[in-house]
């Protein structure tokens, strides 16, 4: 099979100029969220986004969690957002 010899590119015309991308929106700091431990004993977790270590010492313990880590904490059955 032979090459088309750039005939296909010639038929398509000149390559369009790339559009400029809009700048990314600024990062907005979100306030930390507080979680309450409902289990027994001690629970230690690492934040998926920040890598911070969060330690809950016994039932009713409340710990402030960085906003990006809060989504992973919501999946933990023994934690709930504090009121």
Write the layout of secondary structure elements.
Layout: H1 7-12, E1 33-37, E2 42-46, E3 53-57, E4 62-65, H2 67-73, E5 79-81
Antiparallel strand pairs: 1-4, 1-5, 2-3
List keywords for this structure.
single chain, alpha+beta, 3-stranded antiparallel beta sheet, two-stranded antiparallel ribbon, 2 helices, 5 strands
Question: What does this 3D model show about the protein?
Answer:
By secondary structure, the protein is of the alpha+beta class. The protein has a domain at 30-83. The protein is built from 2 helices and 5 strands; from the N terminus they run αββββαβ. Strands 4-1-5 form a 3-stranded antiparallel beta sheet. A two-stranded antiparallel sheet has the order 2-3. A hairpin with a 6-residue loop joins strand 2 and strand 3. The longest helix is centred in the last third of the chain and has 7 residues, at 67-73. The model has no long low-confidence stretch (mean pLDDT 85).
């Amino acid at each position: 099979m032979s090459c088309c010899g750039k005939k296909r590119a010639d038929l398509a015309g000149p390559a369009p100029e790339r559009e400029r991308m809009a700048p990314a929106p600024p990062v907005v700091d979100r306030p930390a969220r507080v979680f309450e431990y409902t289990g027994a004993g001690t629970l230690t977790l690492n934040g998926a986004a920040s890598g911070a270590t969060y330690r809950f010492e016994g039932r009713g313990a409340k710990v402030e969690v960085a906003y990006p880590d809060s989504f992973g904490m919501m999946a933990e059955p023994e934690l709930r957002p504090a009121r």
